[in-house]
Amino acid sequence: MKYLLKTILFHLLDILSINSLFRFLNRKKAIILWYHGICGNEVHLNNKYEMRHVQKSSFLRQLKYLKKKGYSFVTMSQLLNALANNSKIYKFVTLTFDDGFKNVMENAYPVMLQLNAKGCFYLVTDIIGGKRLLWTDYIDVMIGNQNTGKYEFFFKGEKVCYMLNTVEDYINTMTDIKQKLRSISNKERIEHMKQFNFNDQEIKHVPQEFITTNWLEIKNCDKKVLEIGSHTATHPNCTNLRSKVEFKKELKESKSKTEQMVGYDVNHFSYPAGDYNSEIIKKLKDYGYKSAVTIIPGFNDKNTDLFQLRRIGVSDNFLAFKAHTSGSYIALRELCNKLKGK
Questions:
Q1: 172, 196, 220: which is the final residue of a domain?
Q2: What is the model's pTM?
Q3: What phi and psi, each to the nearest 5 degrees, are found at residue 153?
Q4: Residue 128 and residue 218 in contact, taking contact as beta carbons nearer than 8 Å
Q5: pLDDT band at 202 (very low <50, low <70, confident <90, very high)
């Protein structure tokens, strides 16, 4: 029912030209689109997995739509210069991709070259060029490989029981375990994950879309099309870092390692899970970063903090894409939240 109501809403926003109105109102603001991976058109990860990848055909349709509506694509550095120098912004769009999935290079990059689109690719450096998965994807694969029935997970010494019967059960279990692990320190998370007994060589049934790119592909990437940024070394929630060693590894060394591999300054950062605070921002500035993107929905202009840049999440739903990129749906949600007193 909720999905049906949203679909009706997206249709109304489009056919009543409300999207057109908000596109006009937001024309002097910059859009940063938030992707993870761009999968093949034949891929359907819905079965037992959270869907974070957009199909190539949808990606192509989205970019063509933006071009048709008069938007211009800019790299993160170009956008940053415009924002910092109070330059004129008119329908700017920057594409961003989190994590470092191989399908970005295989599917998104060729489309970007074709349509002169530009963006930033934020890498989790320790998993690039190897067989390791993101810790969140490890959990998805481990739960996805479980037979139906009861599944037990120990959290803070307490046994948590889940029932795995439907696709929804699997996805809810993955989500709940990841939320629990994000609520504790990074050191505690690593200890909790030992119960999975992960072995990179033995893990089975890994979706192709969870595979990350390699440094050779990254080196061959034209920074005038797709810049490289940092998404930490191992993808922790940044506010869960406690020690100087952790901060140095995740924020500083991920930057220096990437710079060594690509041969230019890495100035842009993406907060894993959108998690940050004033301390993290200060450390990023100290380490030489010039910007950071959040997962807070919205647009960007001269008044936007460069270390709290807003992004718009993207799915395969084209009507939703129109509503989000115009700003109509964001405005509607903000209005609803105000009416609810949030």
A1: 196
A2: 0.95
A3: -135, 135
A4: yes
A5: low
